[in-house]
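Subject: Sanity check before I submit

Could someone independently write out the structure tokens for this chain? I want to compare against mine line by line before I put it in a report. The sequence has 430 residues.
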Amino acid sequence: MHGMKKLLSLAAVFLLAAGAVLAAEKIPGREENKKQETVFASGDTLYFWYTDDALTDFLTNVSAAYYEESGNHVVPVLRSGLEYLEAVNDASVHPGEDTPQMPDLYVISNDSLEKAYLSGLAAEITDEGGVCNTDTFPQIALDAVTYSGKYVAYPFYYETSAFLYNKTYMEEGEWPVPRTIDDILAFAEEYEAPEQVEAVFKWVVSDIFYNYYITGNYMIVGGEAGDDPAQLDIDNEKTRECLHIYQNLNQFFSIDTKEETYDTVLQDFIDGKIVMTVATTGAVARLEEAKEAGQFPYEYGITVMPDLTADLKSRSLSVTNGIVVNGYSEKAQIANDFAVFLTKNHADTLYEKTGKIASRYGVLYENRNVAEFMDEYENSISMPKMLGAGNFWVQLEICFSRIWKGEEVEPLLSQLSQQMEKQLGQDCGV
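---
Independent answer below. Compare away.
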């Protein structure tokens, strides 16, 4: 990561700010917080919490640029991801000698937004910068930060899964990129694989994040914004059809659900042992590192997940990390201003410095494969925010696993549907 060398005049200020961050994490007492605030001679001071160390250099640089423009200080504070929202709540609701400085804004994944909003920890954003629109962000990003018809965060970066394939293998045989699972099956039957190829298509069957595209277009849990318990449709004809197709794939692509992990599957792809897989956004950096090290002598491509058939469409799962303005902060206006400054003005350097892909449009990437994930993200469905659906993913993963191993689709899907109806307090008449 490279710093902003033009800001040498601010070096002393941000060395002190860095000390304040360490103090906020290691010595959380209120007396120490008062000492931190004396570091800054002018302007307001915002505390910005986050949990991923990959953001540290990026946030430090953006904070420096914001100070130069506004005269306001932003102190990035790296916190543990364990009981993170609870820590935000304690610092906000129960300030005292033993609590850290309350964050004025913080980063959180969209599935926690209902809990944050109902706890008063996520305020409706003011968006005075006018960024929350479909010119700036895809609709999926706006849906992800919507709760009860209100924007309660600014979209920051996202994670989703897309289709990764060995372009060298495909071009050698003049094969088109598969657009459906049926295309993949046809390819598997006719492909004359090189000696090193052990499987045509392999993915992490045991992880719902890499499986969800199978049913994502037809399984409704909370609607597009994932916040409406009345919108629940798990056990329907299309979902059952999709899961039968999924189960039949085990006959063609025998995958050990216990032995295979995402790391082992991606390494097999790097080693040229598989032709196609399902990958998340970090795959690009890992593949490029392998190419530079001479460990990956192939070209690769990333595109949207194939549909199941010409009639059954796929839809991947996505998680959007947003920037929330704390409802307890007395500096909400400045916090909103900084959030817009970060997401609007500095999204173009986010991937370069952090490996995270910005949720907004208009970012140019040196590697075109990074941009391909946006096509999948636009079509994805966000994790729901509803507190009652908190264990849905665990239960769905179990359901997929049992179906993969051969258990009947209908009773398992019906059981899952009834369980979620009960948890969400709905009677959908299924």
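---
OP: Matches mine. For the report I'm noting this point. Residues 1-41 have pLDDT under 50 and may be disordered.
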